[in-house]
Amino acid sequence: MKQFWARMLPGDRVVVLSLLLVAVGLILLQLGRAPGRTVVAEVDGKVVFTAPLASDRQVSLPGPLGTTELQIAQGQARIIASPCPNKVCIRMGAVSDRGELLACVPNRLLVRIEGGDDHEESSYDLLSR
Amino acid sequence: MSTCLRKLSVLLLLLLALTGCEERSQRVSRSQLLMGTLVDIVVVAPSSVAEPAIDAAFAEMHRIENLMSPHVEQSDVWRLSHQPGPVTVSAETAEVLRRGQIVASESGGAFDMTLGRLKQLWGVESATPRVPSDEEIRTALQGIGPDALRLEGHTVYKRRPELQVDLGGIAKGYAIDRAVAVLRQSGVRHASVNAGGDLRLIGDRGDRPWRIGIQHPRQSGELLATLDLEDIAVVTSGDYERFFERDGVRYHHLFDPQTGRPARGCQSVTVVTDEAMQADALATAVFVLGPQRGMEFLRQNRAEGILVTASGEVLVTPGLQSRVHWP
Question: What is the pTM of this model?
Answer without folding.
Answer: 0.80
